[in-house]
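Re: the pair you flagged

First of the two:
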Amino acid sequence: MNKIEVIISGHGKFASGVQGALKLLTKIPKTWHFCDFKEGMSDSDLKTIFEDIIKNNSNSECLFFADLVGGTPYKVAATIAYGKKKITVVAGCNLGSLLEAIYSNFSTANEFGEALVEISKKGTKKLSFNALYNTATSSKSNTSGGI
């Protein structure tokens, strides 16, 4: 398995918030980096932070995880990734997908990115009481006379 560096970034305290949540749930790999895009920072400030992480891990593939498609962290990561096969950018996934990814092995950053998107889709659910209500009503009507 290749060592894949993960850079999680987003607006405000998104990245540090994800980091805090993951710390409550599991041990965070040393290859994961959390970069908040704070008020007052410029695109170039964020780009410098991203490039420093990549430069210090130049033999590794890299996966960027941004909070929003089209937001500044996403655009900066996309600019860095353009034309580089070893860098993948994803956005909009959730805490559950990141948690599951910690316990998975991926050969490439691209494979990792594809998995994050799929895990996020599977883990996004709407609570529905309809099935519960239908089951409860069916059981009541089927209790006519014993065993």
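Second of the two:
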Amino acid sequence: MNASLASRVDDRPAPLAGRRRDLLAACGLVAVGALAGCSTTPDRRRVTPDAAPAPRPSGTELARGTASWYGPRFHGKRTASGERFDMNALTAAHRTLPFGTRVRVINLQNGLEVVVRINDRGPHAADRIIDLSRAAAAALDLLRAGEAPVVLVEA
């Protein structure tokens, strides 16, 4: 064979059966790889650091201590959750409860109670357990005193 004839023979496309076989082999490898990733079940016992704590039954006491309130100086400013603080909404700041948690706050001096939504971090005074919005403080009748003994109960 001369050199020009040999190059024409090598440039010819592979027979159809060979291409089909290669394509099926490639598809088979992809399918096996995909199924291998699905063959194991996730370990559901592992706890990730970002996982929310298990919900407590409704009515569970969360804490007892002193509540205070904050309002005019922070009205309209961003809270730790990113929303704007509205002193006329029933919201509160807590150090550790997840944002969006609803908590029943009971004033132990007069028995008044209110349900607030946690949307900020605080209080920053060590002797207090929760900072209430002005509206929540008014509902508990602690505006004048500024603080009161309370119990926090999951709502």
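The first helix runs from residue 3 to 10.

-B.
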